[in-house]
Amino acid sequence: MNRKEELIVLYIDGKLKGEQLEEFEKLLREKPELYREVEEQKKLKEVMDMIVLKNPDRAWEEYWKSLYNRIERGIGWIFFSIGAIILLTYGIIEWIQAVLKDVELPMFAKIGLFVFVFGFVVLLISILRERIFVSRKDKYSKEVHK
Known about the structure:
Elements lengths: L2 H10 L5 H13 L1 H19 L5 H10 L1 H35 L5 H31 L1 H5 L3
């Protein structure tokens, strides 16, 4: 931004004082092209001041603040979780029965599979429990969305 543009902005914003203001107003009277430029900048500033931008994040925050939407989402997660638990339990039971009935699979491999699956389930539950606990207690995770 050159000095002329800087003075125009300061003039329009009402920040020129004393001698600077008097000098600039004298230049406005003497130079019609400067006067026209200042008038154009004033019009542009008026238009820009009328524009109000709505932050898209704010719209989403307002949506989620609604009690109905929070309840709706909570119920959806509950049903999803129950369905997943039922399906996983059924699948694990069927898998266990199939492994136990398989006579060709050595006992060592059966024990290894069960220990592997049990360890995986324990780790999965531990991670989920930790995530839930941290998300409820961590004040910074909520501030990231703001």
